[in-house]
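Protocol step 4 of 5: obtain the predicted structure for the target chain.
Materials: sequence only (see below). No template structures provided, no constraints applied. The aim of this step is simply to have a reference model before the mutagenesis design in step 5. Sequence pasted as it appears in the construct record:
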Amino acid sequence: MPHNGAARRFREQMAEGGLEIVGDTSVASPHVMTIALPKNIDSSALARELADRGLLVAYASDYLHQRNWIQVCHALAHVLAFLIILFVLARHLPGVLANDFWVVVFTGALCGLVNPTIFGTYLLIALNGFGFHWNEAFSSLRIEDYKGFLRLKIDQRGNLTVYPIVVERVPHSDDGELLPRLILWVIRDRGH
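Step 4 output (structure tokens):
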């Protein structure tokens, strides 16, 4: 996929700053850039500092954390979808519907359908093509079984205990048996 001018300039600036952009530009998306950080810079600490300054980057996925990488993602696909929908509706809505109110209503409704489809397609490709974003992809599936939740207990001294509980099979009728089980470990955090 060819890189647009802004993406190319961003890559050049990162390289000038001594940071490596992962991936061959002939196949990498210009809208998702993976940055390999030097060993002396912790990706988690940098991502938290950037978040404090209002810039969100991806860093928490296992494959990113293990390699000390962060990802900068561009929302260009969503913005383009919005602009295309807006333009088409503004030009082609018939008669009574061709006013600002209905253009905004229909643009919002269509973006509500198109943009999640774009994101879902990204997750489909990332998971099946590259093995990335397992949590994100599976959390959006409508699988009735394999549910889990956390039971939190805070005692009077401020100690937090977390009990991870899973349900592998959800009953498919009201009289079915619910078989929750506690995962073998419990997380305890002593209050300050």
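Step 4 remarks: The domain at 5-73 is CATH 3.90.1150.10 (Aspartate Aminotransferase, domain 1). The radius of gyration is 23 Å.
Proceed to step 5.
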